[in-house]
């Protein structure tokens, strides 16, 4: 639950945009990414609270009290308009693919500013942003902000595609294309779309924040201005993460099996999973890793002790052929090095993080 509390701290420190800054809109351009609106609806604040109750485990509901107490101090009477769109982007192999994402914006009042908010690791396909139409990452839309939340490749309309789990370069590209698609959609609807954006995200989304921040500063030619970015609790270097977790042998969220499946697919490694996993995971891969379980359900199946599901060779210096194949590829997946942000970036992490090693954020 600490990750939700972390993001509330980040949200409360968002900059207040001045009147002039809010009205510096993106230049109108020919549509190149936006494809279609697939569904839209309006929701009250009670709707998003009910939605959260369906996603997060019953045993965590007590922790909602802190957040609800905070929200009680604010005006939650606003209505939000959610729009799910599809857009063109590319997969890790450079092939064009149709992706989707959600836009949540205040209904009947002027937006205070634009936020791009990455989702956390929603492993199950059913709770993707455009499936739910409401998401915790979009909660600030109830307090006046326009919030963009991408499904990313592997979820929403691209759910039949293998998710590029923690693929840094592709995540930056797909998120950037979503941002441009939103600008095109807003312009087609006659709605102002500001150049300024604040980028946020936690857990898996923490890496996404840095990936998008880096991509915009290195490649954007449309005039996007990053106000600030807030990566929280992210895995910013997969090689460092594997080295640390090999030593601790403990991770409260089993992201490593998903990462292995993703690397095997996108790099066409043809690994022998008998050299990677042990039973009972090995015999239940299709079911357990089928992206149909909620996070808390998966944690009950795959225990924090990594020795209960990873092959013993994973914990050795020599490893084995299949593990070495993946290890050589994941070393390319980092947002650290050969770049430093120009716009302010506030890195948020807890030293008690037992999912994403805090040493990586400290190093970054």
Mind explaining what this structure looks like?
The chain is α/β, with parallel strands linked by helices. It is 35% helix and 16% strand. The chain contains 13 helices and seven strands. The chain has a seven-stranded mixed sheet, sandwiched between helices. The longest helix is centred in the middle third of the chain and has 21 residues, at 168-188. It is globular, with a radius of gyration of 20 Å. Residues 1-23 have low confidence and may be disordered.
Helix/strand layout:
Blueprint: H1 2-12, H2 19-22, E1 34-43, H3 45-55, H4 64-72, E2 80-90, E3 96-106, E4 114-118, H5 129-132, E5 146-150, H6 168-188, E6 196-202, H7 204-219, E7 225-232, H8 238-248, H9 255-266, H10 285-288, H11 295-301, H12 321-330, H13 358-363
Parallel strand pairs: 4-5, 4-6, 6-7
Antiparallel strand pairs: 1-2, 2-3, 3-5
Helix pairs in contact: 6-7
């Amino acid at each position: 639950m600490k990750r939700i509390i972390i993001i509330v701290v980040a949200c409360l420190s968002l900059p207040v945009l001045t009147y002039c800054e809010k009205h510096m809109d993106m230049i109108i351009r020919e549509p190149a990414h936006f494809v279609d609106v697939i569904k839209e609806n309006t929701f009250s604040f009670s709707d998003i609270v009910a939605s959260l109750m369906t996603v997060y485990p019953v045993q965590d509901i007590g922790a909602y009290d802190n957040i609800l107490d905070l929200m009680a101090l604010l005006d939650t009477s606003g209505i939000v308009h959610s729009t799910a769109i599809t857009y063109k982007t590319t997969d890790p192999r450079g092939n064009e693919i149709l992706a989707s994402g959600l836009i949540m914006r205040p209904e009947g009042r002027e937006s205070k500013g634009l936020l791009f908010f990455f989702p956390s690791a929603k492993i199950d396909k059913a709770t993707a942003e455009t499936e739910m139409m409401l998401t915790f990452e979009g909660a600030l839309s109830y307090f006046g902000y326009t919030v963009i939340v991408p499904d990313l490749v592997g979820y929403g309309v691209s759910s039949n595609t293998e998710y590029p789990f923690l693929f840094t370069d592709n995540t930056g590209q797909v998120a950037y294309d979503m941002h441009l698609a939103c600008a095109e959609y807003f312009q087609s609807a006659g709605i102002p779309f500001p150049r300024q954006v604040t980028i946020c995200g936690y857990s898996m989304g923490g890496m996404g924040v840095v990936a998008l921040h880096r991509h915009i500063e290195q490649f954007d030619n449309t005039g996007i201005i990053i106000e600030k970015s807030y990566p929280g609790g992210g895995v910013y270097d997969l090689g460092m993460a594997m080295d640390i977790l090999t030593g601790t042998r403990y991770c409260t969220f089993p992201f490593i099996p998903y990462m292995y499946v993703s690397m095997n697919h996108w790099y066409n490694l043809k690994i022998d999973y008998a050299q990677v996993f042990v039973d009972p995971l090995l015999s239940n891969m299709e079911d357990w890793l089928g992206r149909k379980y909620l996070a808390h359900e998966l944690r009950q199946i795959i225990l924090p002790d990594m020795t209960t599901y990873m092959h013993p060779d994973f914990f050795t210096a020599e490893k084995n052929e299949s593990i070495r194949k993946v290890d050589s590829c994941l070393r390319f997946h980092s947002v650290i090095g050969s770049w430093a942000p120009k716009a302010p970036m506030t890195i948020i992490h807890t030293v008690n993080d037992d999912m994403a090693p805090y040493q990586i954020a400290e190093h970054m």
